[in-house]
Automatic annotation (TrEMBL):
The lineage of its organism: Bacteria, Bacillati, Actinomycetota, Actinomycetes, Glycomycetales. The keyword Cell membrane does not apply. Keywords: ATP-binding, Nucleotide-binding. Residues 77-272 form the ABC transporter domain. Pfam families: ABC_tran (PF00005). This is ABC transporter domain-containing protein. The keyword Protease does not apply. InterPro entries: AAA+_ATPase (IPR003593), ABC_transporter-like_ATP-bd (IPR003439), P-loop_NTPase (IPR027417).
Length: 272
C-alpha cells in the first residue's frame, strides 16, 4: 500500500466509523502531511491505516473526565503579539496567550498554520520575529519530530536528560521508568530507533516531564498511540495540571477541546 492508498483507506475507515466526512478528510490529510514531513511512509509512523483510523474514531467518542474547579497558579507562559517570519513568508501573526499553572491550553489549526513553529517559539528553540514571550524557567518540551536519539536506549536518554537537570543517573532512570509506567510502557534495553513510532512518542513525553517542569509543551504527542495510550496521556496531562503545571498541547482532535481551559486557533499558510 503506497502513501496515497494509506490516506484513502484512513479517510474511508473514519467515515465508516461515523466521523463527519469533512473531519475524516481533515484527519486523514493531516496524518498524511505529518508523515510526509517526517520522511516516513504513513504506516511506519502511525501503523496500518484502518487500525489508526479506528483509534482516532474511538478517541473522539471516548468521554474524558471533565476538569474540576481548581485554583490557578502563577503565569507560566505569556505571549503578546508574537509574530514569526521566514524571509517574506509570515508564519505567525499577532499571537496572544496567557497560560497559568493548573491550566491546559490547546493549539489548533490547519496543517501549515504554524502550530509546531509556535511551540518552538514557546520553548525558545525558535526566535520570534516580533512580540514578547515570557515563560517559566523550568520547561518540558516534547517536539513532534527529532525528540529522541535513535542510537540511545531509553535508560541512556533518562541519564542524559537527567544530567542536564542535575539528577544522578540512578534517580533519573528510576524517575523515567516510573513516568513511563503512567503511559502504559515498560522501557527495555532497545535503542530508540528500533522502537515503534508510538513508543518513541512515549519516550519523548517522559523526557519532557522528567524534571517536573512548571510549563509542559506537547506537539501532537499521541501519534501512533492506541486507544489506551491516548487515554493514559490525557490522564497524565490532567495529573500535571492538578500538580500545578501549565500544559500547552497541539492537537487535531476536536474532541480534546472539550476538556481544556483555553483554545488557541492559528491561521497560517505553511508550517516549516
Amino acid at each position: 500500500m503506497n502513501a496515497a492508498e494509506w490516506h484513502a483507506a484512513c479517510d474511508r475507515r473514519l467515515a465508516e466509523l461515523g466521523v463527519d466526512p469533512r473531519e475524516a478528510r481533515r484527519l486523514a490529510d493531516d496524518s498524511a502531511a505529518e508523515a510526509l514531513a517526517s520522511g516516513l511512509h504513513p504506516a511506519e509512523l502511525f501503523g496500518p491505516a484502518t487500525a489508526y483510523a479506528t483509534s482516532l474514531a474511538s478517541a473522539a467518542r471516548q468521554p474524558l473526565a471533565a476538569p474540576l474547579a481548581r485554583a490557578r497558579g502563577p503565569v507560566v507562559l505569556r505571549l503578546a503579539g508574537v509574530t514569526k517570519r521566514y524571509r517574506r513568508r509570515e508564519v505567525l501573526r499577532g499571537v496572544d496567550l496567557v497560560l497559568r499553572g493548573g491550566e491546559v491550553a490547546a493549539v489548533v489549526g490547519a496543517n501549515g498554520s504554524g502550530k509546531s513553529t509556535l511551540l518552538g517559539v514557546c520553548a525558545g528553540s525558535v526566535k520570534a520575529s516580533g512580540g514578547t514571550v515570557e515563560r517559566a524557567a523550568r520547561i518540558g518540551y516534547a517536539p513532534q519530530q527529532h525528540g529522541v536519539a535513535p542510537y540511545l536506549t531509553p535508560d541512556e536518554h533518562f541519564r542524559l536528560f537527567g544530567a542536564v537537570h542535575g539528577m544522578g543517573a540512578r534517580k533519573a532512570v528510576a524517575t523515567g521508568t516510573r513516568l513511563a509506567a503512567g503511559l502504559g510502557w515498560r522501557p527495555r534495553d532497545t535503542v530508540a530507533g528500533k522502537l515503534s513510532g508510538g513508543t518513541q512518542q512515549k519516550l519523548n513525553v517522559v523526557l519532557g516531564e522528567l524534571d517536573r517542569p512548571d510549563l509542559i509543551l506537547l506537539d501532537e504527542p499521541y501519534q501512533g498511540f492506541d486507544q489506551d495510550s491516548y487515554l493514559d496521556l490525557w490522564a497524565q496531562v490532567y495529573a500535571w495540571r492538578d500538580a500545578g503545571a501549565g500544559v500547552l498541547v497541539v492537537t487535531h482532535l476536536l474532541h480534546d477541546l472539550d476538556k481544556v481551559d483555553h483554545v488557541l486557533e492559528l491561521q497560517g499558510s505553511e508550517d516549516r
